[in-house]
Structures are given as C-alpha cells and as structure tokens.
Amino acid sequence: MEDNIHAQRKNEHYFIAEKLYQADAHNGLDQVQLHPDNLPELALADVDLRTTLVGQPVNVPFFINAITGGSQQTTKINQQLATVAAQTGIPMAVGSESIALKLGTTAGFEVIRQANPDGFVLGNLGAGHNLHNARKAVRLINADALEIHLNVAQELTMPEGDRSFKWSANLREIITHLEQPVLVKEVGTGMSTTTLEKLRRLGVKYVDLSGAGGTNFVAIENERRHHQDFGFLHEISLSTAQSLLLAQDFSHDFEFTASGGIRSALEIAKCLVLGASNVGISGQFLHILIKHGPDALVTYIETLKDELRNIMVLLGCQRVSDLHQVAYTLSPELWSFKQQHQNNN
C-alpha cells in the first residue's frame, strides 16, 4: 500500500509538471543583455565547452538536472534520460531517491546505470536525511556526486509534507564525511544571501541556485491540495537572474550551478556570464522527451552545444571561464534589485 502511495505521488508530480509547462520561462534572464565582441580573434573550432561540475571536469556546461523517479512510469522516463545522457556525453542527476530508501527497494533507479554505465551521475536526497542514507543513495546508483535538495516551500505546500526543517546538522555531517562531492540545491525558490552565508559556514562548496521561473513545485503541490490555497508561498522566491546576481557576492566561496526555466543556449550563456560554472535543465528536457521522444532530445542537446559555441564566438570567449568577463547590461528593474541589495549590505 505504502509503495503504491509513493509511486502515485511521483506520477502526479510528473504529470502535473508537464501540465504546467510553459514555453516561455519567467526566470528574469530576458532582462540581461550581453555585449558582443565584434573583433573576437577566434575561430569556431577554437571554442572549448569544458567546465567543472561539483569540482569535477565535464565536457559541456549544462546537464540533465533532477527530474523524477520511484514509479513504473517514471522509471521509464529515467531510463530514457540516462540513454540520452550517454549518447550526448552530458551529466545527469536523478530525482529524489528517498522513496527507495524508505521502501528498502531500488524503486527503479537501477536503470540509470544500466543505460549509462560510464556517465557522470548525481544522486539526490532531501536535506532531512543523514550521512548513512546519503551513502546508501550514492551506492544505489553508483553516483559520482550527490545532490541534497532544500525544498521548504514544497514541503509546506505538500499535504503530506514535512513540517520540521532542522537540517543544518545533517548537512554539516554529509558535507564533512561523504566520500563524494555534494551539490546543495534549491527546487525553484532561488537562494538568498542569508541562505548562502549559512551554507558557507557549514562548509558547502557547490550550490545549485535553482531560481524561480521554471518547474514550480509550489504550484505542483498546490494542484494536489483539495482547496489549492497555498499558491501565496511562491511569492516568496527569487528568479534565476536575481539569484545569480545575489550569488556574485560569494563568487570566491562556491562553485555555482544555475537552474530554473532554462530554455535556450542564450540563457545558458547568460547564466555563465552572471557567474555560474554550469547549468542544470529539467523541465525543458522532460517536455521534449514526452512530446517528441529520446531522439528529438538528443538532437536538441546537440543543437544547444552548437548554438552555445556560436554565442561564445560572438562574445569573444574561447573557454567557459572567459564568459565571466563578458560585459552585460541589466534592465532597470533588475538593476534596481541589484542596487537595493548592495545598499542594504
């Protein structure tokens, strides 16, 4: 019975996420204008897309971020995503493995390594788990790294969600003792400087800012409520662009992943210009997979690579790290947000 309840919730998340998908994200990146270099002294063949993810070298500055897992339907999705990751050579993060740990089963996650035995794979758990569970999650999929997600707004909206969020001790233990690197991530609310300062003190080195503008888990969980009365929580969030601007104060403390409604190579480039080392994409990849199948997703990913190379030439950047030096202009609204933050600190 409990197995069926958990699987049903995973299926609901998957179907509602696709139902709420929007072709145009509202992540604030449209308010960032990049400045071209009209004399780049660079050939397209010179462009190098290599960067780092959780301190490890990767060949492309974007990856399949956490999406789903834990039911028969979502197992099929994960198998397809893992196959796509293997074919395109990009990393992949799985959805929360909590269901597998709670039920004492593999919950279908074993298909990840069956389809992608040599790829870079990140496991995933909520911040309420301890070191013992973190190690079990890593072993379950032979993960190269582990995502620990912070999802207070989602849990508060979820009818059966947690109501206690005393997570710091678990995080410190996992960060200190887990043998694999740990990426601490939000799930669509963005991260404030208050949060980043707390993570810095805990010893966190790798952060996924996961700003508002993409998959909205407050909206997803609100769909599952009888009265749908918790949408107000989404108002307390920061967009992807806002989160990246706030994170610039911590550029020497963390390696940043940007995520939250990324739809194009231009948005990937903007995230990298604003300070991210890599970019996670979930909803867009899931949408293409559902609507058009794995082959179309492979084509889309390869197109993103090609488009990003072209953008980097126009910006005069041979390497991903060069993008951090690109000039940009912010919209009046985003500029005001940045100035107000600086004036308050």
TrEMBL record:
Encoding gene per record: fni
CDD domains xref list: IDI-2_FMN
Subcellular compartments: Cytoplasm
Entry protein name: Isopentenyl-diphosphate delta-isomerase
Gene3D superfamilies from the UniProt entry: Aldolase class I (3.20.20.70)
Sites where the protein binds FMN: 66-68, 96, 124, 185, 210, 215, 261-263, 282-283
Known cofactor(s): FMN; Mg(2+); NADPH
Coiled-coil intervals, chain numbering: none
Family under the similarity heading: Belongs to the IPP isomerase type 2 family.
Subunit structure: Homooctamer. Dimer of tetramers.
Domain of life: Bacteria
Residue stretches making up the FMN-dependent dehydrogenase domain: 156-325
GO molecular function, one term: FMN binding
Organism: Ligilactobacillus saerimneri 30a
Keywords: Cytoplasm, Flavoprotein, FMN, Isomerase, Isoprene biosynthesis, Magnesium, Metal-binding, NADP
Pfam families the UniProt entry points to: FMN_dh (PF01070)
Record: residues binding Mg(2+): 155
Function noted in UniProt: Involved in the biosynthesis of isoprenoids. Catalyzes the 1,3-allylic rearrangement of the homoallylic substrate isopentenyl (IPP) to its allylic isomer, dimethylallyl diphosphate (DMAPP).
GO biological process: isoprenoid biosynthetic process
Reactions listed under catalytic activity: isopentenyl diphosphate = dimethylallyl diphosphate
HAMAP family in UniProt: Idi_2
Annotated InterPro entries: Aldolase_TIM, FMN-dep_DH, IPdP_isomerase
Cross-referenced SUPFAM superfamilies: FMN-linked oxidoreductases
Gene Ontology cellular component list: cytoplasm
Annotated residues for binding of substrate: 9-10, 154
Enzyme Commission number(s): 5.3.3.2
PANTHER family: ISOPENTENYL-DIPHOSPHATE DELTA-ISOMERASE
